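User: Hand in any protein.

Assistant:
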Amino acid sequence: MINFDEDQYRKDLTAQVNAIAEGKKVADEITKQGFDNIFFVGVGGTYAMQMNFVTLAKQYTKIPVYLEQAGELVLVGNPHLTEKSLVITGSKSGDTKEIIAAEKWLKEKNVRIAAMVMSKDSAVGQLCDWRIPLQVFKGVEFEYLSMYGIFYGLLADNGDFPQFNEFYDQIKKNMVEGIINTQKKFDDRAESIASKYYKTDYQMWIGGGELWGEVYLYTMCILEEMQWLKTKAVSSSEFFHGTLELVDKDLPVFLVKSVGKYRPLDERVEKFLKKENNNLTVFDIKDYMIDGFNDEFKPIISPIISTIILNGRLSKHLEAHSGHSLDMRRYYRQFKY
């Protein structure tokens, strides 16, 4: 497969899976200290990745869980944010401007921070109270895995996720090889899709529930930022209230179907599009699910499935066909703004 070092990838994934245990230790320490609520604070791809945890929290816990955009939080605040809150944030590089500003603002308010970051010596690493270990810079699957220990550990400690040990056992047994095999399974399809759509004028992407953050992330951070392709992302629940009027027979439309409780919303969209559009591509996460996981855990790991087939494989083939490096930027981090 292009741009895929299987041996190194397996080594990195194994390290990230093992680091879940470190995240659980952080969760245990936080639980002993006590907290009233959890704030996820992010920007860009990190913010998009955090959407999944906030969405699934509604199905597991009565702990109030909030999602805040870092720049907005500093300007507006939130009355529920107190010294008894826990903030979970992150920055792969450790130098994201908005996250650093948010952490400084939070420290002034004596709010405790757990940050997903590669280096504890980075600005973000130094400002946080707990570091959530992240092993690799590229690959959103590593970010999801890094959060599992602390977030589901906190829920487990609260009595909301007693399946934590079983879930982690299944991750250790099945996740690494499952991720690799799924990418291999999808690779030929990724090549076919990329060759057809790498230079479209406009694409529409739809998804919902535990996968809405993935659709949001892939269109904004990958297609727009890294490939300069114009897109429209809309959730399945909102599709029928405006965006459906942009659909015609030829418009490239992509639907990412979830595996959890939100799936009926995706199916309603799919039924409409199969009638009104002749250019529909459906990514049914059920078709690429990793073996060895209980049904109840499949919605939890489904964003990992989405990111490894779309970001992990489709984006690599888009890059090959377009000749536009995924590292090329016109504005992002090119100068101060």
Observations:
- Strands lie at 37-42, 65-69, 85-90, 112-117, 130-133, 203-207, 231-235, 253-257, 280-284.
- Residues 6-162 form a domain with the Rossmann fold fold (CATH 3.40.50.10490).
- The chain has ten helices and nine strands.
